[in-house]
Amino acid sequence: MNDSTITLPWLVIREDDNGNRYRVGRYATRAEAQKIADSLDGRGHKQLYWVERLGSNGAAAVHD
């Protein structure tokens, strides 16, 4: 695990209408990540945005 994993454990993930998933950004707090996800989600596009926390192994949880 590197320093950025420790200091930026919250991810914003985007899923497009074809089911493709992308990491939008990494953030220090859940509140910061959620604010970004809500802002992007509020634009009215078909993409879905959500927040995940990196696990201790550096991998994000699976969202289904």
Automatic annotation (TrEMBL):
It comes from the Bacteria. Pfam families: SPOR. InterPro entries: SPOR-like_dom. Residues 11-41 form the SPOR domain. This is SPOR domain-containing protein.
